[in-house]
Design a protein that fits this description.
The structure holds 2 protein chains of 2 kinds.
Chain A (H helix, E strand, L loop, with lengths): L5 H15 L4 H17 L6 H15 L4 H11 L5 H19 L4 H17 L2 H19 L4 H16 L3 H19 L4 H17 L5 H25 L5 H16 L3 H19 L7 H13 L5 H16 L7 H5 L13 H20 L4
Helix pairs in contact in A: 1-2, 2-3, 2-4, 3-4, 4-5, 5-6, 6-7, 7-8, 8-9, 9-10, 10-11, 10-12, 11-12, 12-13, 13-14, 14-15, 14-17, 15-17
Chain B lengths: L2 E8 L6 E9 L25 E2 L6 E2 L7 H6 L3 H7 L6 H15 L3 H18 L2 H14 L8 H13 L3 H13 L6 H13 L8 H6 L11 H13 L7
Antiparallel strand pairs in B: 1-2, 3-4
Classes of the chains: A mainly alpha, B mainly alpha.
């Protein structure tokens, strides 16, 4: 026992046990007070044995319903505690809530989602999925199968499977979410657009480490979903709106991540044109787009690599000019700033692209040329 | 093996659909020319490198793709001038339209390259005078500002030599030599210098540049060697002075 407070409290509790009996409200109150003191000043894990004793007494005297308050208090204090310690108590809280509110209740659905989030972060994935499915089933009964609540819950399921890179499940979940949103919000709604864009990113990611046939199919699905989603966003907002820019950026990052530069290239060029229009030809916001283009062209031995590199370095130079440097605070205030210099390793990317370009250039003009 | 397929494309600019023969596969085994024209079967596919919309004249590698600049350009007099050129044959004209678009938006390097492609078409047709004129036109796109790119200057050097623009070629070769470039670029420049001196405007491949060994330059003697020889001559007395 590592608790500083426990020995004195336990002496006091022993006296109460002698006087009122081991299963008494007085002992439960003293144990609860010890649990609170430990949670407040020490490690909440040290309070678990006392909490369990307290809960057992409360349950024996008054039934499981009364334990909810103590469970809530301890779980509320145990934010930074490893899930292995929290899991049994949170499962116990779910069981208590099921008794109090019934299986088909918002409280049980919320507890299932909370547990699923913890399982998604700590594993296993199968448990996260089963709790989310349980939450969806409850919401379907409560709000109807075609409802905003169910759509949101299915979104959480899709987000979880995608985050854990369970691409097959993620694809199915996103399709389910899309169909629901089409019914709930309408086929040309913003929600449907965003679901399509999420699907596109998932399909692109799912193509990684796949055989060429499967990869090509996933990429084709990604392109189709993205084009549909982008068209809807363009209808709803302007073609050069911030929403469209964000969608382009997300899809570009997904394509670049799965080494599909030629799929990313038209989107990069479009985003570049929008940013040039919005922020000017030498704005900081252009840098990552230029660097991605330069890197992609260099990797693909494309002739556009050199002009793109020259332009990227020229823009970068405007921020690094020794005679007139623009410091971090100055860059932060620039239009379209996206941590261009200090966040994304632009210089490293450009130097690497330059090296690739020089190597390709030597091959181009060498004996193999 | 070279393989084509006929595909329908919806024009990015006017939206009308037309059919085009598209290159599906080819090969380019062998050394490229000194202006980077590919070899092998791919060399003769030049006619399919660009598509042209038969309705609005928009030219692109694939006419169903483009950007806002492309749409704007088809409304300019520069586009109409290039597109309606009665003298140019179709393949050549497509490159020239594309070059006009590049030039319009200030992309000198692409304008140069597309005009050079038009010259390659003229080469293939045996129209030497047109090829020379197009090479000079290509070089003209690179005027109006210093070019730092080694790649572009090596291409330009070949273009100037092939167009028999000796003075400009000599100046560029001297500039590149003075930069003491690393291999393989220095070998290419040395080869060109030899050909420029010989007033040779022929077509050569990159591998031929490596087979070439420049003769030692006799016009510029090593000053240290000259001094050593002079000292040596002073020491050896003439037979009649004895």
């Amino acid at each position: 026992m590592t608790s500083f407070y426990a020995p004195n409290h336990l002496k006091h509790i022993a006296g109460l046990e002698e006087r009122f009996g081991p299963v008494s409200d007085e002992v439960a109150v003293a144990l609860r007070s010890l649990v609170r003191v430990i949670c407040q000043y020490e490690d909440p894990i040290d309070a678990i044995p006392f909490l369990e004793r307290c809960l057992a007494i409360e349950e024996a005297l008054h039934g499981p319903e009364v334990t909810l308050s103590d469970l809530n208090t301890w779980i509320g204090k145990a934010g930074g505690v490893d899930f292995e310690y929290v899991e049994p108590l949170q499962l116990r809280r779910l069981a208590v809530k099921t008794v109090i509110f019934g299986e088909t209740s918002r409280e049980v659905a919320a507890e299932c989602e909370a547990l699923a989030r913890r399982y998604a972060s700590n594993g296993p994935y199968s448990k996260a999925r089963s709790f989310l499915e349980r939450s969806i089933a409850i919401k379907q009964k409560l709000c109807g199968a075609v409802s905003v609540e169910v759509a949101t819950a299915v979104d959480l399921l899709a987000e979880t499977s995608a985050r854990l890179e369970k691409w097959k499940d993620a694809g199915t979940d996103l399709q389910r979410s899309l169909e629901l949103k089409e019914k709930v919000f309408g086929q040309r709604s913003e929600e449907v657009a965003r679901a399509l864009l999420s699907s596109a990113i998932v399909y692109a990611n799912a193509s990684k480490l796949q055989r060429s046939g499967t990869r090509a199919r996933h990429i084709h699905e990604a392109v189709t979903a993205f084009e549909r989603g982008l068209t809807l966003l363009e209808e709803r907002f302007a073609p050069d709106s911030l929403e469209v820019q964000k969608a382009l950026e997300a899809m570009i990052r997904a394509y670049v991540d799965c080494r599909e530069f030629w799929k990313a290239e038209p989107l990069l060029k479009r985003l570049l044109a929008i940013c040039e229009q919005a922020y000017g030809d030498d704005a900081a916001a252009l840098l990552w787009v230029l660097a991605e283009l330069a890197k992609g062209y260099a990797d693909e031995s494309a002739e556009k690599a050199e002009p793109m590199l020259e332009r990227s370095f020229a823009v970068l130079r405007t921020f690094l000019d020794a005679k007139k440097p623009i410091y971090r605070s100055g860059i932060a205030g620039l239009s379209g700033n996206r941590e261009v210099l200090y966040g994304a390793g632009i210089l490293e990317q450009l130097v690497q692209a330059q090296e690739t370009f020089r190597s390709n250039l030597r091959k181009r003009w060498g004996t193999s040329g | 093996m070279t393989d084509y397929d006929q595909r329908k494309r919806e024009c990015y600019c006017c939206g009308k659909v037309s059919e085009h023969w598209e290159l599906m596969s080819s090969n380019s085994f062998g050394s490229r020319d000194l202006d980077q024209r590919p070899s092998g079967m791919f060399r003769s596919t030049i006619g399919s490198w660009l598509q042209e919309c038969p309705y609005c004249g928009y030219v692109a590698p694939s006419i169903d793709k483009g950007d806002a600049k492309a749409r704007c350009f088809v409304d300019t007099p520069e586009f109409r001038a290039a597109s309606l050129d009665p003298l140019a044959e179709p393949a050549s004209r497509r490159f020239l339209v594309r070059a006009a678009q590049d030039a319009y938006y200030g992309d000198r390097r692409s304008a140069f390259h597309n005009t050079l492609c038009a010259a390659w078409v003229a080469d293939d047709r045996g129209r030497e005078a047109d090829a020379v004129a197009l090479r000079l036109k290509a070089a003209g796109h690179l005027g109006g500002g210093r070019i730092t790119s080694i790649d572009t200057r090596l291409l330009l050097l070949d273009v100037l030599r092939r167009a028999a623009s000796w003075q400009a070629a000599e100046a560029l070769a001297a500039e590149l030599t003075a930069e003491e470039l690393e291999s393989p670029f220095s070998d290419i420049v040395a080869f060109h210098r030899g050909k420029i001196e010989a007033r040779d405007s022929g077509r050569y491949k990159i591998k031929e540049a490596y087979a070439f060994k420049p003769e030692p330059n006799r016009s510029e003697a090593d000053p240290e060697l000259v001094k050593a020889l002079a000292r040596h001559l002073k020491i050896i007395k003439r037979p009649d002075s004895a």
